[in-house]
Amino acid sequence: MTFIELVENVALKTGMPKTKVKEVLRTAATTIDTHVLDFGGEVKWINFGRFRSGKTKAGKAFGHTLTPRPALKFHSYGR
């Protein structure tokens, strides 16, 4: 499912305008990103999953050296 499909689905099920749904989803994603990466926190979403901080791996790809950098990691609680 793409972001646009998610927006359309939520708008259809809630009756909210697509522009408002898009704004809410982007704000939620930004808030999670800020809390986890900038403050080193963790976000637990009951019956969905957990967002936490991690690092990318170092190595080489396409002739470039890759250095570890902060990354958002997600772990699903599964169904």
Question: What does the model show?
Answer:
The chain has a single domain, classed as HU Protein, Chain A (Irregular). Helices cover 42% and strands 30% of the residues. It contains two helices and five strands, in the order ααβββββ. The mean pLDDT is 92. The strands form two sheets. A three-stranded antiparallel beta sheet has the order 1-2-5, covered by helices on one side. It has a two-stranded antiparallel sheet with strand order 3-4. It is elongated. By secondary structure, the chain is an alpha+beta fold. A hairpin with a 3-residue loop joins strand 1 and strand 2 (49-55).
Which descriptors apply to this entry?
79 residues; alpha+beta; HU Protein, Chain A; two-stranded antiparallel ribbon
